[in-house]
Amino acid sequence: MNLKEDVIQPLGTFKFWKELVIMTVAMFIAAAAVYYFLLPSNLVIGSITGLSMVIASLFSAAGIPVKVSVVIVLINALLLVLAWLLIGAEFGAKTVYTALILGPFVDIWEKILPYQTLLDPGQTSVMGDPWFDLLCFVLVLSASQTILFNINASTGGLDILAKIVNKYLHFDIGTSVSVAGALICCTAFTVNPFRLVVIGLIGTWINGLALDYFTAGLNRRKRVCIISSRHEEIRKYIIEDLQRGCSLYEVTGGYNGHKNVEIQSLLTQNEFADLMSYLKQNDIHGFITAGNVSEIYGDWNSKKKKKK
Question: Which domains, from first to last, does the chain contain?
Answer without folding.
Answer: 3-218 (no CATH), 221-302 (3.30.70.120)
